């Protein structure tokens, strides 16, 4: 799967923006320009697939908090619209476009709370020379095309707070494929490294091909690489690159999986996860996320440089570029040195996030949704 384009309208600092994505996309910019809002838009798209969109908006403070915070123009209305274009989901070369618009509930006659986010419209289209609508929803009314291409009026009694992408299951292959693809995305940000962090605890001895979003199975991910896949060349090479002379030790797990580190100045002393510095543990967690036995179709990283010493910038860039050979990567960062190191190793230029006319924008992005240098 490839996420080839993203469009967001009316989310916090984002008035309206549409832009293409690459296999590896790096967004860099200062504080307050809206990088995290772009990242959060992807999380909201995923919540539409998992059926938790209304809950996520409520956690953000409700629609009143997430709608565009700037001055609307006379022809604009307050609304939140998310749209993704996806390739390589179907056996054909056709792309699929999914979009959803949310808003406040009607004042009367709605099976919803007054401030709860409601689905106003939702569409899934097959993009050909002439687009083919596969699913269309306006309020509670939904129709979709079945496996034979027949247009079916759906009578699943969806609440206005429920998404059709999550609710329509079985008999709609394209909807099923898009839901599965988006729900498989992984987001890694603010991985805790405090004393009670899940990263510092042993993991249950269960084969773990992928790192959990909170990093709670990190030891099991390393054990899976070391003892199930029996392939840790990249893992060992990056440990050497990041911490010269150090070694990562992963004993065969019994009831729990554990790991330790040894360093050249104290080669006989094994440091457990609970003893490692925040930066060392953060880097190990990123290694678990990006070198795991199996990677999700899309990984988003938000400020992965947090807590890392500047000496780890180039190894981190190397890690990200290596992972992009296996999956699609989106990186949001404050760090210009990290963005430059990724560009040097991959040839992929970072996109500069800026404020233009009070709203989030990209340097070089045209009004037609492309970049000058593409």
Question: How does this model look, in words?
Answer:
By secondary structure, this protein is of the alpha+beta class. The chain folds into 2 domains: 195 residues; 161 residues, 3-Layer(aba) Sandwich (Rossmann fold), CATH 3.40.50. Helices cover 26% and strands 29% of the residues. It has an 8-stranded antiparallel β-sheet, with helices on one face. The protein has a 6-stranded mixed β-sheet with strand order 10-16-17-3-18-19, with helices on both faces. A 3-stranded antiparallel β-sheet has the order 12-14-15. The longest helix has 16 residues.
Using brief descriptors, characterize the structure shown.
374 residues; alpha+beta; Rossmann fold; eight-stranded antiparallel β-sheet; six-stranded mixed β-sheet; 19 strands
């Amino acid at each position: 799967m490839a996420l080839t384009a993203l469009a967001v309208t009316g989310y916090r600092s984002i008035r309206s923006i549409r832009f293409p994505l690459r296999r590896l996309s790096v967004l860099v910019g200062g504080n307050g320009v809206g990088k995290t809002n772009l990242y959060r838009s992807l999380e909201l798209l995923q919540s539409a697939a998992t059926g938790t969109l209304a809950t996520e908006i409520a956690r953000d403070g409700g629609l009143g908090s997430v709608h565009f915070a700037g001055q609307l123009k006379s022809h604009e209305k307050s609304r939140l619209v998310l749209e993704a274009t996806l390739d390589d989901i179907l056996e054909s070369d056709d792309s699929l476009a999914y979009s959803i618009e949310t808003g406040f509930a009607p004042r009367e006659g709605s099976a919803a709370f007054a401030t709860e986010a409601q689905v106003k419209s939702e569409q899934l289209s097959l993009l050909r020379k002439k687009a083919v609508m596969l699913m269309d929803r306006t309020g509670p009314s939904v129709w979709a095309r079945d496996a034979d291409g027949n247009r079916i009026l759906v009578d699943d009694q969806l609440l206005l707070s429920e998404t059709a992408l999550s609710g329509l299951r079985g008999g709609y292959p394209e909807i099923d494929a898009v839901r599965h693809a988006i729900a498989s995305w992984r987001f890694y940000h603010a991985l805790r490294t405090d004393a009670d962090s899940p990263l510092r605890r042993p993991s249950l001895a269960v084969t773990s091909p992928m790192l959990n979003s909170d990093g709670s199975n990190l030891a099991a991910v390393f054990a899976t690489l070391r003892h199930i896949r029996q392939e840790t060349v990249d893992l060992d090479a990056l440990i050497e690159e990041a911490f010269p002379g150090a070694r990562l030790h992963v004993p065969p797990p019994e009831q729990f999986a554990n790991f330790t580190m040894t360093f050249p100045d104290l080669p006989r002393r094994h440091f457990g996860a609970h003893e490692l510095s925040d930066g060392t543990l953060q880097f190990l967690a990123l290694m678990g996320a990006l070198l795991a036995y199996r990677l999700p179709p899309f990984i988003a990283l938000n400020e992965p440089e947090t807590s890392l010493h500047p000496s780890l910038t180039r190894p981190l860039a190397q890690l990200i570029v290596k992972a992009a050979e296996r999956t699609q990567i989106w990186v949001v960062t404050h760090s210009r040195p990290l963005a430059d190191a990724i560009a040097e190793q991959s040839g992929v230029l970072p996109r500069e996030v800026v404020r233009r006319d009070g709203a989030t924008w990209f340097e070089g992005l045209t009004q037609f949704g492309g970049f000058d240098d593409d």
